[in-house]
Automatic annotation (TrEMBL):
It comes from the Bacteria. The gene is copZ. Transmembrane segments: none annotated. This is Copper chaperone CopZ. Keywords: Chaperone, Copper, Cytoplasm, Metal-binding. InterPro entries: CopZ, Cu-bd, Heavy-metal-associated_CS, HMA_Cu_ion-bd, HMA_dom, HMA_dom_sf.
Amino acid sequence: MNETVLKVEGMTCNHCKAAVEGALTELEGVESAIVSLQDHRVDVIHNDHVSVKKMIEAIEEQGYDVNA
């Protein structure tokens, strides 16, 4: 398994947290996604079958900006 940390701007509440975590965990190959609202980041545990680009696209589709 791999761990990727993405900086995500615009998350301010538990709804934001749930939206980002949900979008990521729906991707095939993502085992877990944990958002830290305080640190404006998400820690993603995933296998090699999901790319960072795919993860960024899933987050951006929810309306958030990613600084990878």
